Amino acid sequence: MSTFVVEGGAGPLRGRVRVPGDKSISHRALLLAALAEGRSRLSGLSAGEDVAATATAVTAMGAQLDGGVVLGGRSRLHEPEWVVEVGNSGTSIRLLTGFCAALPGLTVLQGDASIARRPMDRVVEPLRRMGAAVDGRDGGRLPPLVVRGGGLSGIDLDLTVPSAQVKGAVLLAGLAATGRTVVRERVRTRAHSEEMLAACGADIEVSADGLTTTLHPSDLSPFELEVPGDPSQASFWLVAACVVPGSEVTVERVYVGPGRAGFLDVLRRMSADLDVEPTSPTTATVTARHSPALRGTTIGGAEVPALIDEIPVLAVAAAVADGPTEVRDAAELRVKESDRVATTVGLLAALGASSEPRPDGLLVSGGSRLVGAAVHSAGDHRIAMAAAVGALVARGDTRIAGWGAVRSSYPHFKEDLHRLLGKAAP
Ligand code: S3P
Q1: Regarding the domain delimited by 3-21+229-420, which CATH topology (the fold level of the hierarchy) does it fall under?
Q2: Phi/psi zone of residue 359: left (φ > 0), alpha (ψ -120 to 50 degrees), beta?
Q3: Using one digit for the tens of pLDDT, what is the confidence trace for 318-354?
Q4: 93 within ligand 1 shell (Cβ under 6 A)
Q5: What pTM value is reported for the model?
Q6: What does each C-alpha distance from 267 to 235, 262, 281 come to in angstroms?
Q7: Is the dihedral of CA 52, 53, 56, 62 positive or negative?
């Protein structure tokens, strides 16, 4: 098991960084390219293991990947010969369940110990309603999942769990269903599936409030895509710059489109020193500087899906900010790669900051001086990287056990950290 030791007070972070390609966009790019008849060209895909799992899966189903070129098309796709392994990737297993529901044949999907605990009924139930035969442990609530696809009909789905993964899975299935598929959301979640489907020529329409997506069965056209930087990975450097004295970090080409940039609004509310310079309608160069007067805030309501993945690192900022920060309406945190209410509260406690778990979030007291400690990632990449950010402002060294979890989304995080600290990588 790998351990990363972060030196407290190692100094300011300074410089420019490019984070890995956005993970959510990368998964969808591979799945849509696999369905599109012909060659799609993708660059800047996320280098993490999660996206690699989706790439391996679509290859097992007949898409051909060569560098960034994907040769796809429904006529090429077939049931995979072996069990599809998704590792730690919840997005892979949920999107692939929808993808395979539309694929005639049998697919078995399984992942690691964390995946084996994550709720799948949210995708299994709507796909069963569409006519797919999907089963799994505990009546279809838990992986492994077995999908016998084909013969689907469209549905009108009221999405009770705010989840872009469920929306994406149902839309992928709807592409090959008879009749229209409607997904109605109560709060907006990230919009990548509907935007990317539209860009590939699908017959899809999104209501003006962004809450209702209507899709008719469609064939997709191949496309070219340069995947922008992942805002969720950028958040670690931006928070680190805000909390470490003397820092200034610029993250280039960060995706800031619908449903992803909520953490920037939260940091602004906390009085962070941030500059966001748009470079296209959906990307920006974002600079953060040390912000000595950070103050607590309340995070909740409709903004939550747009920042759910950033809560562990925002909690580190909240721990050193003046005054309390309350996170509510975020019960989904409990069913991520780890129970992120428990693991975030545990991380803060280890670093000497006080916070309390809540059923749907947490309350961080604020005003803490962090101290180095031995902590564990709990197998969760975002907890590992939030720990590294906390460690930079702690007195003394922090040992982060289970560091290998970062491979799922940001394999070269350590190298980028050393570069921003102006140190040679060990
Ligand atoms: C994702 C959606 C979110 C997010 C996850 C990626 C996606 O999960 O937490 O990291 O790419 O659709 P939910 O759909 O479960 O909210």
Answers
A1: UDP-n-acetylglucosamine1-carboxyvinyl-transferase; Chain (3.65.10)
A2: alpha
A3: 999 999 999 999 999 999 999 999 999 999 999 999 9
A4: no
A5: 0.98
A6: 10, 9, 21
A7: negative
Q: How do residues 90-110 score in pLDDT, each as one tens digit?
A: 999 999 999 999 999 999 999
Q: Domain coordinates of the chain in residue numbers?
A: 3-21+229-420, 23-215
Determine whether 203 is an active site residue.
no
Residue 24 Cβ inside 6 Å of ligand 1? The answer reads yes
What homologous superfamily does CATH list for 23-215? Enolpyruvate transferase domain (3.65.10.10)
Rounded CA-CA distance 178/251 in Å is 44
22, 309, 380, 416: which is the annotated catalytic residue?
Answer: 309
Residues 365-374: b if buried by 16+ CB within 10 A, e if exposed: bbbbebbbbe
Q: pLDDT, tens digit, for every residue of 239-251?
A: 999 999 999 999 9
DSSP string, 374-399: EEE-TT-HHHHHHHHHHHHTSBS-EE
Q: How far apart are the CA of 134 and the centre of ligand 1, in A?
A: 21
